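hey so i finally got around to running the thing on that chain from the lab meeting. sorry it took forever, my laptop kept dying and i had to restart like 3 times. anyway pasting the input first so we r on the same page abt which one it is
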Amino acid sequence: AQNVTVDEIMTAYKQACQKLNCKQIPKLLKQIQAFEDLAPRIDCLDLKGEKLDYKACEALEEIFKRVQFKIVDLEQTSLDEDGASALFDMIEYYESATHLNISFNRHIGTRGWQAAAHMMRKTNCLQHLDARNTPLLDHSAPFVARALRISSSLVVLHLENASLSGRPLMLLATALKMNMNLRELYLADNKLNGLQDSAQLGNLLKFNCYIQILDLRNNHILDSGLAYLCEGLKEQRKGLVTLVLWNNQLTHTGMAYLGMTLPHTQSLETLNLGHNPIGNEGVRNLKNGLIGNRSVLRLGLASTKLTCEGAVAVAEFIAESPRLLRLDLRENEIKTGGLMALSLALKVNHSLLRLDLDREPKKESVKSFIETQKALLGEIQNGCKRNFILAREQEEKEQKLQQSASMPEITATELPEEDPVEDGQNGDAASPPDEGEEAEEAPTASENGAAEDDGGDGTDSDSDTDEEADAGLETKDLSETQQRPDAATVVTVPHLPPSPEELRDRPPPLRIAEEPRCDAGAGNPATCQGNERRISVSSPGRGRKIFVVTRVESLPERVAGDADAAKPAEPQSPAPAAQPELPALRANGAVPDSAAGSTTAPAAPSTGRAAGACENATLDTPLPNGLKTDFARALPETSSDPDGKGGSCAAEHELSCSKDERELEELLLEASQDAGQEPL
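ok and heres what got predicted. didnt touch it at all, straight out
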């Protein structure tokens, strides 16, 4: 119902009680008055212990039709068949609860269970059903089994002490083989035997890999039944996390089966074997299986008739285990020798956070040993505290690492002088590309002979680099970089001038915003080896790459235009690198004014006729210093208006041809002067 008030609910309930001639429930009236926010589900409707006959249940409909709850607690409410079936129909129709407790109602009968099964099948919101001490007998079990087979929404099912042994368990286990929603199944105190019942449970474990908790405490599984369960456990590649076998008369024979099974289980984390007469021999049978297991984190061995000999076997397992978190050894006769073994094991174990032992020392024939036991108990406690502190520090460290991994950085470092030729050879040999994108980038950089500079824009060749540039740029010392374990790969780009064919065919190159150190005028690698600038790029999940910027050049407009027409411009991240050594390029307009890091759009290509004419004029111009005419292809041309839109073909042709000649002479003259000043 919409826009309901507490007064309306109270009035409706009282009128229903008068109409049905039944007593109002004071406990219920108090809870209704305490209701505050009625829009979402209210936490709990608690009717535990109240006697609910059919009329009282009918009166509750006035509440259920107006309000929904998370928990509806009907424990020990003396429900009969009529009342139970009426209540379950209401809860199913109004979707009143996500957690329903019908424990300790022994007389709901077949019709009650039939209505409960219908509710389980039809209600999408019911996730937790608690039916402890509510018998599910032979004639009622088929309804519940059918509901569980048709993938009900139940996640948790409590059926402790529900008289399941025999046919009811067979029907339930068969139905649950196909159920993919149930995660927790509690079957304690059902007198399950070691033959037929255990065989059904073993079959269930073979076929259902969704149940995570199976609680079988206080049954009669015996060693024969454990053999069936182990057959199913071997098939559990994922799924079962907790297995409780407390008080099932298991002995050392059953531990031999379990010891052979444990190395095959991959999901089991909690194993509780408490209150079984396992003895020292049983722990020895279990030890090798536990050492070979890679998943068990919690082990319960309380009251398993262990002495010092068994404690030594357990200590061997503790010393070998890198993951055990908790171990329960209470109610065992472990004296000085066993405590000494456990204390020594804890000195080499760094994972165990809790080791439960009896607080009071055991009686010894030598009185001084009692004091020794107290001291050893203190040492064991201190060892667990130490491991707890270490675990907390490790957790904090991992959180910091996760935060730093989410903010990768680009580091720019200057390397000492090296021979570029040797470095390039080593880098090419030592840097196989990690992914398809990097496989394209590496040959592109080596073909170009230089990393292209786009007026200070960040790298746009890889998806990670945009995030890196956004996260910020840091400058780090080389020694720090070399100490990093991932500083593995170094790539140096050789200084070979590109041929015209390569310029036309190559994909857009890797752009790295960094300050160039020299202009390799004649393509001589020796002229700028001392002033190289290297860029180290790191990203999560990849090795650190170091690129060397040896020359800066832009694509000819026609090539850049073709590339831009084929691929829309990607947003590029800003980088704070400045370029003080290129004043002539800035003056001529070859480098955009936004070199400080603003996002720029590439200049649009001019028409084919103008581009061809400019290219011919450039090639016909005599070049100073004996440079080849091919070098002119790599020289930048003036970009058109800042919007990235090209002007008219004729106007651009007239302006650019004469201006290009002057700019070309100035640029090449400066390049030759810089090359002459560099030490050879």
